Amino acid sequence: xxxxxxxxxxxxxxxxxPYAITxxxxxxxxxxxxxxxxxxLDQASSELHAKNMQFYGQNDSLxxxxxxxxxxxxxxxxxxxxxxxxxxxxxQISGIIQICPLISLIRMINSNIYGIxxxxxQDLVELSTSLGSIVMDSGCLLESRFDFKQTNxxxxxxxxxxxxxxxxxxxxxxxxxxx
Length: 179
Known about the structure:
- It is a single chain.
- Mean pLDDT is 83; it is low at 1-8.
- By secondary structure, the chain is mostly helical.
- It is elongated.
- A hairpin with a 2-residue loop joins β1 and β2.
- It is 73% helix and 7% strand.
- A two-stranded antiparallel ribbon has the order 1-2.
């Protein structure tokens, strides 16, 4: 572990690096925030799905905007579940590199559901900011460099996969629709 020197009562003492001390609690906080986001998204998804099913049952059709909203929420739910499971799996500081693609994924999700589930906006911003600070601090500790261009490509690939999963679920929910 990287350490830092400080003067205490006119003597030099070696203390653990303060960034190293704060990473674990911040990871736990991010796990907590992701759980709060999931709760809000699950509630919004249930409400929207119930409305869509009611309308679909009466008319055997749905507007594209209704389907797109439900798809966006399903993508967001799966993305945040993925973020949370990744965070729970990190046991060593070297595992923090797994967070990099998640930051831009969270930002993309936030922009996709910005108007659909406004109650998650601030939490998603908080989560991406907290994860970004963890990545930066761990980079200082490990003296490593992150390829953010590559991580953005990874997050786009993750988002594309999550879109396919959500569209598959929508097709199962509303089998008679051409979506």
